Amino acid sequence: MKLLYVNGSFEGGSILSTRQLLERLPTETIDWQLLRASPQSPLAGYLRRRMTNLAVKLGGDEPDNIVEAANRMWGRSPVPISGNESSSVAVENATRTVLADWQPDVVVVSSVERVPWRRIRRAALAAGTPCVLYLREEALLPHLELTTPPDLLLANSRGLVDRCRDLGYEARLVPSVVDLATSTVESTRRAALLINPTASYGLDRAIELAETFPEVPFVLQESVQLSPDQRASVHLLCSRLANVEFREFSPDPAHVYRDAKVLLAPYTDFLESNRPRSVLEAQANGIPVLGSARAGLRDAVGTGGTLLSVDATSAEWAHAFQQIWSAERYRELVAAARDHAGRDEVQPATIVDSFVAAIATVGSSNGLPGRG
To answer: For the segment 195-219, what is each residue's pLDDT rounded down to a tens digit?
Structure first.
């Protein structure tokens, strides 16, 4: 089977998990290529958005819509990176090229925005290639109503599976692959860690806790690159609070957890069903999680941490933090975290088997209905 995997990101957990999945696929039965996004300048991004908006206003099909025809020129030739991986500033356009030239048996799509998904789905239909949408983010759920449903729908959390069912779609659970060997470290257990210090990931709650516990070091770890405004805001917070430190992106996952005692995950509803790989990485190191009871976190955290109601008060958060930080409760959670991280469901071999079995149903039968 020839598998084209299209990922609309170039940094963060989605692209990392994608690589770690593809590298474990059985080479004797699956020949794969990864097409992922590449960064572009702010000006280029602005021009593309304006052209897309103008094309929508003009309406009509190519070649009648000259702006839409011009849009198809961006990034249509994939740029080789290494081995089976290539990139493009417009993965939707490069996908059309790969579909025509390589003729894959199935295309799997992750972490793309609305317009790229719509165009990739249409290109796959035109090529007669089964198309799989692999959901990793809550924000991509509206994609299901944009165009023809995918031939197969995968989701990396039970929260996303449930949300798909609520919308009338059946999704198969395939958790993200996390290579724990790269994130293993003996932590000094001195700090509270927040990964992705933005509003969606609960930055305000983390700062509130830092103000309540000035004797505790707090680390704000960049994962996905912050915008200039976000970075300026974080630096301002760090300058105001002596116990808060900002750390720039590190390519070494083990380095991220080197001094973490607890992982903070006070997610907002924007991330309701997201299942972060950081939870598994932390728990495998015996680092418990304190977070909000969002669907994705309930799925990921299990017994290896404490989850609070989404409407919990500041006092309740402070009490839960204090309980985790205490020696007796902490020892219990460390053991529970390690045990939870060792469950079969999140083992890479188990996930690869589930993924291969799922895509085989469309790769060999020319597609399944996506609507439940």
So the answer is: 999 999 999 999 999 999 999 999 9
Task: Say what the pTM is.
Answer: 0.86
For the ranges 58-72, 139-153, 195-209, 214-228, which has the lowest average pLDDT?
58-72
Helix segments in 86-127, DSSP class H: 91-101, 114-127
Which structural domain range is residue 262 located in?
A: 180-341
Kindly state the average pLDDT of the residues 12-21. Answer: 94
Please indicate, yes or no, whether residues 110 and 189 belong to a single structural domain of this protein. Answer: no
Residue 11 and residue 157 in one domain = yes
In a shared domain, residues 335 and 357: no
User: Which 8-state DSSP code applies to residue 225?
Assistant: P
Q: Strand order in 152-155's β-sheet? A: 79-82, 85-88, 31-37, 2-7, 106-110, 131-135, 152-155, 172-173
Angle at CA of residue 119, ends 116 and 120, nearest 5°: 80
| Count of CB atoms situated within 10 Å of the CB of 229 | 8
Structural domains counted in the chain: 2
Alpha helices, H only, 144-242: 158-166, 203-212, 228-240
* Burial of residue 125 (number of CB atoms within 10 Å: 0-12, 13-18, 19+): middle
Indicate whether 368 belongs to any domain.
Answer: no
- Token pair recorded at residue 2: 């020839």
**What does the radius of gyration of the chain's CA atoms come to, in whole angstroms?**
22
Percent with pLDDT over 70 in the chain: 89
**Tell me, what CATH number does 110's domain have?**
3.40.50.2000
